[in-house]
Specification:
305 residues; mainly alpha; DNA polymerase, domain 1; hpI Integrase, Chain A; two-stranded antiparallel sheet; 14 helices; 2 strands; 3% strand
Length: 305
């Protein structure tokens, strides 16, 4: 089984262009299922056991995950991993199992992110200068990162993947390679250019076009966790709510555009969402704000005629 799983993982990595983190998540989900199946069947699991597993086995696995207090979201993702594995088995190994298609994923409540107040984003600039006054290049780096995510709606991984050459000479737009190796074009606001140029001028590690734009104190590529810590530090310093994260900066970019009249398809392209349903979550956020204003201000809200 390990050889089959390794082959599947190679397919995800090299054919589907999934990240190593995503591939490992798929692998862990499949191993979790196989471990359960070994207990369920009372012996080692081979490819025949995978092929013949029925609805009782799949539902038993999901019930076992519930006993282990794993979340609905985690189990829904694991079931999706398993379905992808079985589809691959059908194509590559001629192993068909229709029982997996009869299993429904647990319902997952999709929580809506909260947008950050634009005044709070502005306050981050002064906070960064206060926190990093001894290291002006770090202050410039952190502000450039915040403005880039907020002004272009990038994911952390996308912002950190940029090279110096990508932002040199004030390009009108950035070519971003997002999830699933999908490319999109994102326009760049002047304020983003200003912040990036200030950082690049005093970055002690030079401006080699092929080197990473964002660097650690030691000159290594900045990690996602380091970027998260930048926003965490600002959140604590300014005493902002817990939902203020790098993703919330991206979310604020989206809700601001939607409130300004952007259509969903355009927003989908800018955010790099593969599904429009993901982008449509932002309409729920916007509608929640509208209903809140209605309930507080509209004379019809209280049943007045």
């Amino acid at each position: 089984m390990n050889e089959v799983i390794a082959e599947f993982k190679d397919y995800l990595l090299n054919t589907k262009n999934y990240s190593t983190h995503t591939c490992s998540a798929y692998e862990n989900d499949i191993h979790d299922f196989i471990k359960f199946l070994a207990r369920f069947n009372g012996g080692d699991v081979d490819i025949k056991d995978i092929a013949s597993c029925d609805t009782l086995g799949f539902r038993g696995w999901m019930a076992d995950r519930a006993k282990r207090e794993l979340t609905h979201k985690s189990t829904a993702r694991a079931l999706s991993s398993l379905r992808t594995f079985y589809k691959w088995l059908a194509r590559q190994k001629n192993i068909q199992n229709d029982a997996i298609n009869l299993i429904s994923a647990p319902k997952v409540e999709r929580k809506l992110s909260k947008a950050i107040e634009t005044t709070d984003v502005a306050d981050m600039h002064a906070a960064i200068r206060s926190l990093d006054f001894e290291e002006p290049w770090i202050a410039a780096r952190d502000w450039a990162l915040v403005v880039l995510i907020f002004g272009c709606g990038l994911r952390i991984s996308e912002a950190l993947s940029l090279k110096n050459g990508d932002v040199a000479h004030r390009p009108e737009a950035l070519r971003i390679i997002g999830k699933g190796n999908k490319e999109r074009i994102v326009p760049v606001l002047p304020a983003v250019h200003v912040a990036i140029e200030k950082y690049m001028k005093i970055n002690p590690f030079g401006q080699n076009p092929r080197e990473p734009l964002f660097r650690s104190v030691r000159g290594l590529p900045m990690s996602a966790r380091m970027a998260e810590k930048v926003v965490e530090k600002l959140r604590h310093y300014l005493q902002l709510p817990d939902y203020v994260t790098p993703h919330a900066l991206r979310h604020t970019f989206a809700t601001s555009l939607l409130a300004g009249g952007a259509d969903l398809r355009s927003l989908q392209e800018l955010l790099g969402h593969s599904s429009l349903s993901t982008t449509q979550l932002y309409t729920k956020v916007n509608m929640a704000e509208i209903m809140d204003a209605y309930n507080h201000a509209h004379p019809m809200a209280n049943g007045d005629n």
